[in-house]
Design brief:
Blueprint (H helix, E strand, L loop, with lengths): L1 H11 L5 H20 L1 H11 L4 H14 L3 E2 L11 E3 L2 E3 L10 H14 L5 H8 L6 H10 L9 H27 L1
Parallel strand pairs: 1-3
Antiparallel strand pairs: 2-3
Amino acid sequence: ANAIFDDMSSFASYAFNKAHAAAYAVVAYQTAYLKRHYPREFMAALLTSVLDNTGKVIEYTAECQRMGIRVLPPDINESNDHFTVVPGGIRFGLAAIKNIGRGFIQKVMADRAQDGPYTGLENFCQRMYGTDLNKRALENLIKCGACDCFGLYRSQLLQIYEAVMDTVAAGKRKNVDGQIG
């Protein structure tokens, strides 16, 4: 009896009961079905679920490459906060970029929906002035490629972004000072 009990207790430490195993099998089947029949949508949702875990994002983007799915870099004019399916593959989500707050991303998306795409770095800074946009956030957007749509090299954008932000801030202050006077 002790030998049988020992076998049962060692088995119970890693085994599922039948109801749990059946439910797990259904979820595994559904997951496999979605990955097979909707691979881009499945991988975009999977990447979105691990936005805050850089290691997992790297692992899953490698899986996308293995599956032949392109993971496109972030784009300030196209990306949403999460990974999204686009005709060319999966667009990187802005929330996965370090030092970029979700509130700021929501403001970017709302402004873009209302006033259209950003035409350049100065246009972006003017429209985002007064939000959570700061030099560190803009530098990270430039470095990850989100501002490549502005037509300049990243090295060029990194050389001018501080001056552009200072110019926009000075222009806004001058405009306010003129109204008060």
